[in-house]
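Quick one before lunch.
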Amino acid sequence: MSVARMLTGDRPTGRLHLGHYVGSIANRVRLHQRYESFFIIADLHMLTTRNTREDIERVAGNAREMVTDVLAAGVDPARATFYLQSAIPEVGDLNTLLQNLVTVPRLERVPSLKDMARDSGKEEMPYGLLGYPVLQAADILCVKGQVVPVGRDNAAHVEVTREIARRFNNLYGPVFPIPELIQADTPSLVGTDGAAKMSKSRGNTILLSDDAATVRRKVMGMYTDPNRVRADVPGRVEGNPVFAYHDVFNPDRAQVEDLKERYRGGRVGDVEVKEKLAVALNRFLDPIRERRARIEDDRGLVDQLIVEGTERTRREVRQTVTEVRRAMGLTSAYTQVRRRAERAGRAVAGSR
Ligand code: TRP
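Model of the tryptophan complex:
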């Protein structure tokens, strides 16, 4: 048996932030060495909520930044294949072939789609957005992915993929492995505003590419316990984003416990808690910054990785699509018609 394949990735909508890190990048960094790893730059998925010309013009730049961020976070370029989804039209072919293996009511029950429709200001669900999980199934199955590390909001998409794969195999024969979801163990990271999960559209992010001064400024402006008007007022640790980040990013557990205790007792100011968080976050981000600087010095590296990865993936996808068409009997339908045309002496020039 060859090594199992992992597929993961993001839509190219902007730079990656700490929420991405906690939700999936950390898992990817940990897992990518163990598998044959593919990283999709899912620009066709981006179109389901952002499809203006300006959005599309930014894809190339965003793709480059995203790959840079993933490499800076610790993915080894020698062990990962990056590819641009829209450059592989055969993914769309597979999407077409898979879309009858799932029902509309099933897709309507996928919670993330309603959220995405709402967040993008759409009143009614675009057809493509309803099909988002089917296209994702095409992505995963076109490289016969077996392991899919994604954030929580993507769990239902992987479940739909499993259903489609099973259904395909039952109907047409065993073509696809049933992919496995690998979910982050940390729940999604709250934004700096404490109101919702970290997301670019809410402007409550800390980016993997933020410099130390920016991180510090963002941390000092973070939402904390609003009832705490003075340092001697006992504060709430639970649901406080400053402590949520301490829990995830500050490896000095003793310090975190001490801060929590003094916070609850009204014996520490918000400023000290935030200062220490800024230090912890910058320590966490420093190695990422160093790797980023090296990647950025290596001119053309990222573009080359995307080009080579896309070509390699396209070869894989073509093979899978051929196999799928054969398993479904679609190739033989056309062959029959062509043979009959030939027998009748009406074969067209150029037919293969
Ligand atoms: N849905 C993912 C996101 O939230 C992107 C994506 C598209 C993906 N196809 C995928 C992730 C296949 C893992 C596997 O941005």
